[in-house]
Each structure stands twice: as C-alpha cells, then as structure tokens.
Amino acid sequence: MPKLIKNGEIVQDSWTVLREATGPEVLKAVPGKNFIVPLKFWQLYREDLEDYLGEIALWLDSNENVNDIDADIQQFPLIALNFPVFSDGRSYTNARELRELLNYKGEVRAIGDVLRDQLFYMARCGFDAFEIRHDQDEEACLSAFNDFDNAYQGAIDNPNPLFRRR
User: Which strand (E) or helix (H) includes residue 126?
Assistant: First the structure.
C-alpha cells in the first residue's frame, strides 16, 4: 500500500490511483471505491462517470495543464499531480496555479517519483498530501517539512517574501 502524508501526518489512503484503464466498466466493477483517474480518462468518459457511486478525483501528468480541467475544477475533492521522474518540476507550477489562479481549496496530492528532499518545496507550492515513493522512510519524510526555518521567497504557504516580514 502506498505511503501517504497528508497535512503533516501519516494517514491511511482511501483513494486508488487508476493508472491504466480501457473504459468506465473498470470502475463499475468495484462500486463505491474512490478513484483518482487520469485527466484524459475523465475527459473521454465524463458522462459515464456521473452516476458512479464512489468519489472521482483527477490526476494530471506533468505535461498536462490545470487549465484543461476548465470550470469543473471545484467539483473534485482531490487533484493529484504526477511526478514521472524527480527531476521533472512541471507539477510544481500546476500546484501553484491550482491554489493561486484557480483558488482550488481541495486536496492537492503529489504522486509518482516523490522523494523526501522535495517535500518542503512541494508544500510551499500548495501540495498538502504526498504519496511518497515505496523506498522512502515515512518518519524521515515527516521531518522534511522542518528542514528550513525561513524562506526568502513568497509562496503559497507564506505569500510575503522575507523582506516584507521584518
């Protein structure tokens, strides 16, 4: 089972990330389960998913943009942003845009190649949940949020840069 840190705590994950599927019948085989589906899957089968008994959330790959979700963004309780490799930082921008430009209030989750060294910066960009990689220690990952006392730049967690906080 994937390891999940949410709001600074290790928690049980009630969501299943649907990585591959051919159609909505996959979801209907397990009614009531909460699924995080790819953006393209949701776009293709949107109408078929309306009567699904569980909750549906989206995940965007790093090459997809939050603007592709359009006005429906607030209907999702969770939006997961994928990091296919740790060096691909495009999902940081998507998280920031979800919070700043689209005023998204739901959970923003990091999935994929999520490492301890990234967690502090991800939280600054608006992530509040992190599905950490299987080889990462949960307790060590929790300590990552306290790696730095101050940040010079303004961000989602504190919009005022350091010089404005003096």
Answer: none
Backbone angles phi, psi at 55, to 5 degrees: -90, 150
Are 36 and 80 in contact, with CB atoms under 8 Å apart?
yes
Q: Please, are residues 68 and 44 in contact by the beta-carbon 8 Å criterion? A: no
* Bridge partners, residue 37, by sequence: 58
pLDDT value, residue 104? 94
The pTM of this model reads 0.89
- Specify the length of the chain in residues: 166
Sign of the CA dihedral with 20 first, then 24, 30, and 35 last = positive
Q: What is the pLDDT of residue 149?
A: 81
Q: Mean pLDDT in runs of 10 for the chain (166 residues)?
A: 87 89 74 88 87 89 87 90 91 94 94 94 95 91 88 81 79
Structure tokens at 110: 């990091």
* Residue-number span of the structural domain to which 135 is assigned: 3-164
Which residues face 155 on adjacent strands? none
Count: domains in the chain:
1
